[in-house]
Amino acid sequence: MSLMPRPVQWNKHCFVYCGADRCDCSASASPDERLRHYDMPMTEETQPMEQKSTEKVNEILNILQEECAEVIQMVSKCRRFGIDNIHIKSEMPNRDKLTEEIGDMLAMVELLIENNVINAEELAGARVAKIEKLKKWSTIFKDGK
Predict the structure, then answer these.
(1) Does 56 lie in the same domain as 31?
(2) Distance, CA of 98 to CA of 78 (rounded, Å)
(3) Same domain, yes or no, for 22 and 65?
(4) Under 8 Å between Cβ of 21 and 9
(5) Phi/psi at 93 (nearest 5 deg)?
(6) Which of 15, 54, 87, 132 has the smallest C-beta neighbourhood within 10 Å, fewest atoms?
């Protein structure tokens, strides 16, 4: 499964995508006419849709990665100092700080869903499958809960 949204269709006659619904370059256009697209300033309108989507998805993935790292750091602090201990910088209980960091991470997961990078139903299925694996292989559910 690809992490990137499906690319837009590029015009066969242009060396680069011009961003217009219909490109005014034709198969008979000279190379100089087609190369004019290279001289166009890169703006929101002229930037290829594929590039916009890729940049947006990459930004979401970068922020998700940062948020995952912050969750990992808070889990470590909860284990080292206690889940109900007060976090030094935020002066909130580690439990609340962990909740905040997990919320930030889940916000980025939602953005992945909204941008069609991942599928909500497949994500829900993966969550259920993980719970089933934990029931089989972990001691988390050994007490019957």
Answers:
(1) no
(2) 8
(3) no
(4) no
(5) -60, 145
(6) 132
Residues in the chain: 145
Give the tokens for residue 135.
């029931």
Do 42 and 57 belong to one domain? no
Give the H/E segment covering residue 141: none
Per-residue confidence of the chain (145 residues) as pLDDT tens digits?
445 443 434 344 444 444 444 455 554 555 555 455 444 455 555 555 555 688 999 999 999 999 999 999 999 999 999 999 998 888 999 999 999 999 999 999 999 999 999 999 999 999 999 999 999 999 998 876 5
- The DSSP symbol for 124 reads H
Q: Contact 108/60 with Cβ under 8 angstroms?
A: yes
- Is the pTM here over 0.70, yes or no? no
- Look up residue 65 and give its two tokens: 């990665």
At 10, list the tokens: 């590029």
Report yes or no on 123 lying in a domain: no
40 and 57 share a domain? no
The DSSP string of 62-120 is HHHHHHHHHHHHHHHHHHHH-TTSBPTTT-SBHHHHHHHHHHHHHHHHHHHHHTTSS-H
Nearest-angstrom CA–CA distance, 112 and 99: 20
